[in-house]
Amino acid sequence: MHILHEAIGVPKLKIESESKTRAVLTIAPLPSGFGMTIGNALRRTILSSLPGTAVTAVKITGITHEYTTIPGVHETVLDLVLNVRELRLKKHSKDAEVIEVPLVKSGTITAKDLKVSSDIEILDPSQVICHCDGADGKKKIQLRIEKGVGYRIISNEENAAEEDPEFILVDANFSPIKRAKYEVSPARVGDQTDLNTLTLEVETDGSLEADNAIKLSAEILQSYFGLFNETDAYTDEDFTTSFSAIKAKEDAERQATAAAAEESFTPIDILGFSQRTLNALVNGGITSVEELLKTPMSQLTQLRGFGQKAKTELEEVLRERGYTPGAGMPATTAAE
Q1: pTM
Q2: What residues contact 109, with CB distance under 8 A and at least 6 apart?
């Protein structure tokens, strides 16, 4: 990681909008150019490498190829194949499964008519498969459902190797992603004005939640990049550091500050003020000797209940102990 972040801190991830199918997040500040670098890598991985479910083959009773028609069905076989390719399904296991739907005498066949097992979820039951008008109800459509990654184009060799010649193999788009885009905008921290803010938007079909799509893509990239630095890791101490090192340093500084503040708290009660004067100081938010010594007399006299008698008493008590209001704790006393 750039040494730059020791000055500006660890980039912050912010969720701008989130639902099951859509997520928008920003990450900033990033070094100049890293918005494009990270955004492009994530988008390419999101679009190409996430698992999803698709129809990979279609079988229709009495049909041997896609360039024909089905008696009693409005759509041609090619149109029907295009329709089933758009089905949005979620399969839990990797093994291929064949599901079916019978043709009807008359009416519209949609995704909700599919006879599926508990391993498959129908994400959009309203998706149209075909329209029937006088079709043979004894005939049926069978679909081979598989879980995979990316886009699969059917080759002639795969067609020739198919065991059941009645199955029509189809190109399959397994990606659960409907849209993925990123934008890079300027960011500024102090005097550094050339930083980046990365905004990433992802929309899925519901088979994979949008935030999980981003997390899985980041994990995939991290696993591959880790190969380059798996052994004999190299860093340049002058120009690189790590987020974990920065976070550890920030945590240590916070703990040290908290410890110092705790150690320097001396209850105001030890000064032996009268109850009236003590109440005026405590009600005014001054509960320690350190706070009292840092507060100017002009501010103390504005406290409710802190009159001339309280002022005189305070000056006498502090003078006896060698303190001066508003000057802070004397170095010798603090050391003691």
Answers
A1: 0.67
A2: 101, 103, 128, 129, 130, 131, 132, 141
